[in-house]
């Protein structure tokens, strides 16, 4: 059996499939970002799900894990051992979420891929490997177009009293956050600050008909198009967008991209099904 995991910063999708690509079992778990989380926390998540799988009598022969964050040689070594603690003889491949997006959106063909989820990322892919990459920088230095950056922009304005009163009042009534609690969640929480900020995106999008919110959302997406996508050969290769946030805004993003001279050919909410095809078909 093959285990395929697609993990963003907020949640991870685990699928056990046969060699023919038939799904045997699926599991949901917390997200794993190997750049922002303690590796012990990532190992714990992996260990817990692997025990669930083994407890159902499923023997795993190969693992393909795609994790958010920078997947270094050390990360690969640590996570490989985390899987082999349960599945001793399994072959393990650990790659980053950008490779997952490229394989899901392009398969074995060349193309340009954007990730728009809790975070954002992009690359140009030649059908086998990533050949060009504009670094995201994370939600502090970049991540334009992402849910976390949208949440950061909104919270920064809300703290300074710049959000229109109807939206600000609804936010206060819905969440009840004060300044100290927001600072704690962003700067001192044991969890993921980007997940906290990205978690505000659904509320923000509920108010898209408000002119302030519409400008905030549109400017965030336009910054991603201008600062990242336009650095690739967008006139030569198809552009695919992967991620739940990008999929939720596909109509808005399609218009903005077209205004910037880019046509988006495909939206994929979650890459896991396409990754199963990639590894088994």
Briefly summarize what is shown.
The protein is an alpha/beta fold and 281 residues long. The protein has helices at 39-55, 73-84, 97-106, 138-141, 147-159, 165-175, 179-188, 193-198, 201-206, 211-227, 244-248, 250-259, 272-280; strands at residues 2-7, 11-17, 23-30, 62-67, 91-96, 111-116, 120-125, 130-132, 239-242, 264-268. Helix 3 (97-106) crosses helix 13 and helix 5 packs across helix 10 (211-227).
Strand line-up across the major sheet = 3-2-1-4-5
Gap between N and C termini: 14 Å
Main β-sheet description: 5 strands, mixed
The total count of strands amounts to: 10
The amount of beta strand, in percent, is: 15-25%
Topology:
Blueprint: E1 2-7, E2 11-17, E3 23-30, H1 39-55, E4 62-67, H2 73-84, E5 91-96, H3 97-106, E6 111-116, E7 120-125, E8 130-132, H4 138-141, H5 147-159, H6 165-175, H7 179-188, H8 193-198, H9 201-206, H10 211-227, E9 239-242, H11 244-248, H12 250-259, E10 264-268, H13 272-280
Parallel strand pairs: 1-4, 4-5, 6-9, 9-10
Antiparallel strand pairs: 1-2, 2-3, 6-7, 7-8
Explain how this protein is built.
The protein is an alpha/beta fold. Helices cover 46% and strands 20% of the residues. The strands form two sheets. The chain has a five-stranded mixed sheet with strand order 3-2-1-4-5, with helices on both faces. Strands 8-7-6-9-10 form a five-stranded mixed sheet, with helices on both faces. Strand 1 and strand 2 form a beta hairpin. It is globular and about 60 Å long.
Key words describing this protein structure:
single chain; 281 residues; alpha/beta; five-stranded mixed β-sheet; 13 helices; 46% helix; globular
